[in-house]
Amino acid sequence: MAQTVSEPNVxxxxxxxxxxxxxxxxxxxxxxxxxxxxxxxxxTLCGGHIIDIYDGCVDEGIDVVxxxxxxxxxxxxxxxxxxxxxxxxxxxxAGPGTTDAVTGVANAFRAESPMLLIxxxxxxxxxxxxSLQDLPHVDLMTPITKFAATVPHTARAADMVSMxxxxxxNGAPGPSFLEIPRDILDGRVPIEEATIPEAxxxxxxxxxxxxxxxxxxxxxxxxxxxxxxxxxxxxVQTARATDAAxxxxxxxxxxxxxxxxxxxxxxxxxxxxxxxxxxxAFNNADVxxxxxxxxxxxxxxxxxxxxxxxxxxxxxxxxxxxKNRDIDLGIVGxxxxxxxAVTQAASGRxxxxxxxxxEWFTELRSEEDAAYEKRLPRQLSDANPxxxxxxxxxxxxxxxxxxxxxxxxxxxxxxxxxxxQPKSPGHWMDPGPLGTLGVGIPFVLAAKYARPDxxxxxxxxxxxxxxxxxxxxxxxxFNLPFIGVVGxxxxxxxxxxxxxxxxxxxxxxxxxxLGDVKYDEFARMLGGYGEEVRDPKDIAPAMQRARxxxxxxxxxxxxxxxxYAPGTMNQTMYK
Length: 575
Ligand SMILES: Cc1ncc(C[n+]2csc(CCOP(=O)(O)OP(=O)(O)O)c2C)c(N)n1
Ligand SMILES: [Mg+2]
Description:
- The protein has 575 residues and is of the alpha/beta class.
- The protein contains 24 helices and 19 strands.
- Strands 3-2-4-5-7-6 form a six-stranded parallel β-sheet, sandwiched between helices. Strands 15-14-16-17-19-18 form a six-stranded parallel β-sheet, sandwiched between helices.
- α4 (70-84) runs parallel beside α6.
């Protein structure tokens, strides 16, 4: 029967037949390598340079989650790595696709998150001729990745993906970047000419316990310590060292503080869990063990640690140990393996030292309780407009053991840092030391995608949400419900505080004012659930309705723009 215009020629629309079953394209090789790594999803925004990877993903059963901005794809890959313990992958087109993803890669770099960004590139055959979207991507990415390279031949496509992934785990983890020129990606090679590394056989497991003698030394120090304290940093979560860290804290009986992604390693009511008395604990400790977190701005560059304390640092990155502050013992290795070795070295000796430390625990607990009591009235404030501490309090009460908390914003999130306590390990997500606004919606996407069994609760500043908020629609499209709470002060308040301090109230409102936007209506427009709240007692019921809606949601909570978090007021940059 003759074809008519209304009956398209199905054969003509079908993909070109395989040129012999024994050849394979670059995009299909990329997908094979991703599959070998256990990556089951790519986050992407399409472009002509990269579509062969999508086709490979179809064959390998890898999901393609398409977003509305490449920054979101890159943050989602970072978030996926954090949630799953496997590397995340974002695929973006050449030129602006790759430059849009820079912020996400940079964030992963500072947060030590293992992700792979694959970017398109003009055909090698047109190298430097001015092809569409040609840019020096590798040069752009080199300073913010552990590895950045071009795939030079189709037969190397899978091999170089594996190479980039191996490099993600060199020392402390981090991002890698690969650009794949279009003719390399679309080209075909006989399958036997391609290097295709086999799952589980192309990189080490990287669980280095460091130097056994150092573990013995630390055990020695801790058994004798009278007032020890340990700070668990993000690497504890990155390295999946939770169990080892808990065993260490309990067996050696050490008050434990947690920051970044390690928050929740011990549950809030645990006798070893401390939070609000950190400054006091550091000032009065005789031994301070810092695990998997650098002496950066969050730690006052280590300068606030008293000189008299014995300071021990354990880190996956050689370059972090002893940086900015002298230490007494430095151990490079996997935090889980090192802490287990120390626990093991200490057991048997525990009876000989003053390890019951009752007085030290009582002293810290009373500091902790006093700080909590002092803050409580503001936390329970009925004020209208709503005090941000009350909002944080309501969120904390709302979280269950299965709620992953994501904070994305300025002052409103700083407030929440003191109040919101994740109830389980790995249930806290913040951008990390790059302080990138806009990670919220992408992290929700990654977290809910990877862990549909978990509830996701995100606190979003109105400024932060504005950066990546359109991908709320992606959450609707992929049916990824979450409870979003917008702390809306119609301002970039964290910055405004500094401006008012420095230039006075009259000149403090420059470049930091946002409109009174009804983010609840925005959510509804995109197919989600939305409500607005002006009275503090309505926060909890609104969040509950959002939970029950089964939809991505935004509860727009109007908060007091004149309330500032102590953390914001103490920022050293304004002093
Ligand atoms: C991408 C990015 N741009 C700018 C900043 C600087 N910055 C830090 S806090 C802040 C204000 C954030 O406003 P919002 O999310 O509404 O939180 P608020 O301080 O108002 O509670 C800004 C602009 C940043 N951290 N990240
Ligand atoms: Mg704001």
